[in-house]
Amino acid sequence: MIHFHRVSLEYPSTKTLALYNINLEVKKGEFVFLVGHSGAGKSSLLSLILKRFDPTSGAVYVNGQNLKTLKGNRIAQHRRRIGMVFQDHRLLAGLTVEENLAFVLRVLGVPKGEWRDRITRVLRTVGLVHKKRAYPYQLSVGEAQRVAIARAIIGNPSIVLADEPTGNLDPDNALAILEVFKAIHARGATVVVATHSRELVEAYPQRTIVLRSGQIVRDEKGARYNL
Ligand SMILES: Nc1ncnc2c1ncn2[C@@H]1O[C@H](COP(=O)(O)OP(=O)(O)OP(=O)(O)O)[C@@H](O)[C@H]1O
Ligand SMILES: [Mg+2]
């Protein structure tokens, strides 16, 4: 599903070698934690899956497609198939929760007749049906993050990527977010979560990839969290 073949990434502006010789295979339906110190390359790796950059060398494949060959409209199409969750929720401040979700459905070209059902279903998944008319400023940080996850999954993406989705949350809220990712995983999505949170990794023993200075130094199933 996601395949990295000898991938290196050097940021041209600073000549920083953010990733070096990454070989990685993530299968359909797998759940993967990506851990490592600040600057280890976690966000860079996720950026390559989204094709925000092309690797300096090597190749990234998603569903068998070398991302380097995607151009123009095909890049947008590729990104629409991926649900991305950031550390800061990035909701549109002037729109309510349901309007934020409808906005995505419009972009995805989903017929209007389906919106109400899709929005209710996804809000049920994140436990926030009762907040559908709230504006982002009326939500707690944890609630806003759950809406951000709802937004990422409302298009039924087969891949969900999250970059520090619980970075701003206390442990209880972080575990509530984890439950949402577990539910998404249980439905068959491939999920990659970059995190610093030991609690998260230990609460859901899954494949854990440890990056150090741009290289994979460990890749194993289980809850061991040693950076
Ligand atoms: N846009 C950029 N331009 C230049 N260098 C960058 C850029 N983004 C990241 N880097 C560098 O690439 C390396 C990897 O950064 P990256 O953001 O991938 O790390 P990270 O593991 O996500 O860290 P954190 O846990 O702090 O989010 C770092 O040395 C960083 O300074
Ligand atoms: Mg990062």
TrEMBL record:
Q: Where found in the cell?
A: Cell membrane
- GO cellular-component term (any): plasma membrane
Residues covered by the ABC transporter domain: 2-227
Q: Which UniProt keywords apply?
A: ATP-binding, Cell cycle, Cell division, Cell membrane, Hydrolase, Membrane, Nucleotide-binding
Keyword tRNA processing carried by entry: no
Q: PROSITE patterns this protein is in?
A: ABC_TRANSPORTER_1 (PS00211), ABC_TRANSPORTER_2 (PS50893)
* Listed InterPro entries: AAA+_ATPase (IPR003593), ABC_transporter-like_ATP-bd (IPR003439), ABC_transporter-like_CS (IPR017871), ABC_transpr_LolD-like (IPR015854), Cell_div_FtsE (IPR005286), P-loop_NTPase (IPR027417)
A Pfam cross-reference name: ABC_tran
Membrane topology recorded in Swiss-Prot or TrEMBL: Peripheral membrane protein
Q: Which GO terms describe its molecular function?
A: ATP binding; ATP hydrolysis activity; transmembrane transporter activity
Which superkingdom heads the taxonomic lineage of this protein's source? Answer: Bacteria
One example of a Gene Ontology biological process annotation = cell division
Q: What PANTHER family would the database entry show?
A: CELL DIVISION ATP-BINDING PROTEIN FTSE (PTHR24220:SF470), IMPORT ATP-BINDING PROTEIN (PTHR24220)
| Purpose of the protein | Part of the ABC transporter FtsEX involved in cellular division.
Of which family is this protein a member? Belongs to the ABC transporter superfamily.
Subunit field text: Homodimer. Forms a membrane-associated complex with FtsX.
Q: What is this protein called?
A: Cell division ATP-binding protein FtsE
This protein's species is Marinithermus hydrothermalis (strain DSM 14884 / JCM 11576 / T1)
What gene does this protein come from? ftsE
